[in-house]
Specification:
Blueprint lengths: L1 H19 L6 E6 L14 H10 L4 E3 L5 E3 L2 E8 L2 E6 L13 H13 L12 E8 L2 E6 L6 H4 L10 H7 L13 E7 L3 E6 L13 E6 L3 H10 L4 E2 L7 H6 L3 E7 L3 E6 L10 H4 L1 H9 L3 H9 L4 E2 L22 H11 L5 E8 L2 H17 L1 E8 L1 H9 L5 E6 L6 H8 L13 H11 L4 H18 L2 E6 L1 E7 L2 E2 L15 E2 L2
Parallel strand pairs: 1-10, 1-11, 15-16, 15-17
Antiparallel strand pairs: 2-3, 4-5, 5-7, 6-7, 8-9, 9-10, 11-19, 12-19, 13-17, 13-18, 14-18, 20-21
Helix pairs in contact: 1-6, 9-11, 10-12, 14-15, 15-16
């Protein structure tokens, strides 16, 4: 009751503010499901952080609705040979501090991604051998080996170019005052509340920007997010929970846009990261397999997500050219789960702490899993935690099982390498298997899709046995917005591209 009252009060306050300041039609207000983490493209991890970056930091390349790579800060590229990528830069681009974006800035950023302590981009661009400045408008990137995945990495945070001057001056505080080359520049941030960006007049594509400000409002409670959207206190909600989709569709003042995504939602398991892994679940794959078999993925998706998501056992969606049709979702098998626990010699019920973000749909999904697993011999304790905190705790190894999603990348390498290859940035469970490492490296070093897919099929055989990640479902992008908002493009990566967005009358 207290939570609902707080949500109602928030709606009332925001609705009042919207009414008083309705003349501020040049401010686009976007509701986020959770708070972003560090506003530094090299160090950031969160999905909602990428949404904020979409308003602030252009990339060398982008993807379109058909998943084609298209130029953004670059005008194009050439493969001089299978290991040499030549990038041609857009002329006349300046950073939000007035500095020129040139080849030296691109080299600086790519080198920073490789060398900055704590970089989460390192594994994404580790194929780089060295970067050279050919001339101010041309960059030559030499890879260690041919790669069918590398270009796709430059369509996301690894391809966001930061101002060398600002990054050098700010040092470890760059995330507090980020400077990129996007349509809006950083203005202020109040953690757990909002991020505000202001229009950058010198943006290279200024003709497609129709707002003076962007405000990203953090509204964790899905009911409050819906109420704010219906009241007109926000113009767009980047995520509408499936159970609220019908309410958005029924409101003539609103519009619902549903599209396929590139990612997955699953449970990352702690196999060797600290003391929290020293238990039957972390030590014995049979216990993890039993837990997976206890989950009815179809029922989970039906109960929690109104069948709008898709049960899965892998890291890419059905539409991906790397989707493996042989990885079928198994039927729930409680008897087999119990047999696996017996074979592992563990005493039941097996205690397990499942950490999940403290938002309504994640908590509900965790509760359904808790109930299902109990029937197979697990005693699951749910640890509901603020999302950014879950990331910190996972890096420190302070978890047994973490229910978390990954928004996905256009190439499968972006969904698996950093998570399943040993000692990579997102391998927070410390999974290490030499066969998996070898196959991931080999697949990354090839350009032929069929050959790469064959290697990934072999990799999945081993990963499915070890279960460093228990894959659960492929999510959908479900966006709610004012019916007056025009120019929205549903791209599978789920980013809110502000270019072309405007409010009609």
């Amino acid at each position: 009751m207290r939570r609902l009252l707080a949500a109602a009060m928030l709606v009332a306050v925001l609705a009042l503010a919207a009414g008083i300041g309705h003349a501020r039609a040049q401010t686009l207000r976007i509701a986020l499901r959770e708070d972003a983490d560090l506003l530094d493209p090299t160090l950031a991890r969160t999905y909602v952080g990428r949404i904020v970056f979409a308003g602030m930091c252009d990339k060398l390349f982008d993807i379109d609705e058909k998943l084609q790579v298209v130029p953004q800060l670059a005008t194009g590229y050439d493969w001089a040979d299978p290991k040499t990528l030549v990038i041609h830069l857009r002329p006349g681009v300046v950073f939000q501090d007035g500095e020129t974006l040139d080849a030296a800035a691109v080299k600086y950023t790519l080198d920073r991604n490789l060398t900055l302590p704590g970089s989460f981009r390192r594994s994404e661009v580790s194929a780089i051998d060295h970067v050279e400045v050919v001339d101010p408008a041309t960059v030559r990137v030499t890879l260690k080996s041919p790669s069918g995945a590398f270009l796709a990495q430059l369509t996301d945070r690894a391809g966001m170019i930061v101002s060398p001057k600002a990054a050098t001056q700010e040092g470890k505080d760059f995330a507090l005052h980020p400077v990129c080359a996007g349509p809006f520049r950083f203005a202020e941030r109040v953690p757990q509340d909002h991020v505000t960006l202001e229009r950058f007049p010198q943006y290279w594509d200024a003709k497609d920007i129709h707002f003076d400000k962007l405000t990203y409002q953090v509204i964790v409670d899905s009911s409050a997010r819906l109420a704010n959207l219906k009241a007109g206190a926000v113009d767009l909600a980047e995520y509408i929970v499936p159970t609220d989709a019908a309410a958005v569709k029924a409101d003539p003042k609103l519009r619902l846009v549903v599209s396929d995504s590139l990612g997955y939602f699953g449970i990352t398991n702690n196999l060797a990261n600290g003391k929290a892994a020293d238990n039957p679940y972390g030590r014995d794959a049979r216990v993890r397999q039993a837990f997976s078999l206890a989950i009815d993925r179809a029922a989970l998706v039906n109960v929690v997500f109104n069948d709008m998501n898709v049960p899965t056992m892998q890291a890419v969606p059905v539409a991906s050219p790397f989707y493996d049709a042989a990885l079928t979702v198994p039927a729930r098998d409680v008897a087999k789960a119990k047999a696996l626990l017996a074979a592992a010699g563990v005493k039941t019920p097996v205690p397990l702490e499942l950490m999940a973000a403290n938002n309504p749909d994640a908590e509900q999904a965790a509760e359904v899993i808790q109930s299902m697993a109990a029937e197979a011999g697990f005693d699951v304790h749910i640890r509901a935690t603020e999302f950014a905190t879950t990331l910190t705790l996972s890096e420190q190894g302070e978890f047994q099982a973490l229910m978390i999603g990954w928004s996905g990348r256009v190439d499968i390498d972006g969904n698996v390498y950093a998570f399943l290859h040993s000692k990579q940035a997102q391998d927070v469970g410390d999974y290490a298997n030499a066969t998996v490492d070898q196959l991931l490296d080999a697949a990354r070093g090839m350009t032929d899709v069929a050959q790469r897919k064959s290697l990934y099929a072999q990799m999945w055989t081993q990963a499915a046995q070890d279960l460093p990640i228990t894959y659960l479902w492929t999510p959908r992008n479900i966006v709610g917005m004012s019916a007056k908002l025009q120019g929205f493009r549903p791209v599978p990566d789920g980013m809110i591209r502000v270019q072309g967005l405007e409010l009609g009358k």
